Amino acid sequence: MSTRVGDRVRVYVDPYNRLDFLNATPPWPWLTPAVVGTALGLLTLMAVVMASLAMGSRQRTLDQSPGSKSSVGYERGGGAE
């Protein structure tokens, strides 16, 4: 009997335990698509919040800098009179 690549072979005995894939457990059984999706969602939310806070802080710094309209008594959004 000869076998080639792709032939199906039925194994009754595996003395060296080389085919233990049937009883194998994944290395991280808790790493499911739901866990990965939740983690990615939280990381994205944290990044958006941090970017928003950084931009708000930057805008406040620009508003208080010398030469800005708000630093010489103008109000933002007041429009031309």
Outline the structure in words:
The chain contains one helix and no strands. The chain has one helix at residues 33-63. The protein is rod-shaped and about 90 Å long.
Task: Please tag this protein with its features.
81 residues; 1 helix; rod-shaped; mainly alpha
Please report which band the strand proportion falls in: under 5%, 5-15%, 15-25%, 25-35%, 35-45% or over 45%.
under 5%
Mean pLDDT: 76
Helix content: 25-40%
Distance from N terminus to C terminus (CA atoms, Å) equals: 98 Å
- Helix-strand pattern, N to C? H
What's the total number of strands? 0
Biggest beta sheet summary: none
Poorly predicted ranges (pLDDT <50, ≥5 residues)?
none
Write a compact overview of the structure shown:
The protein has one helix spanning 33-63. By secondary structure, it is an all-alpha fold.
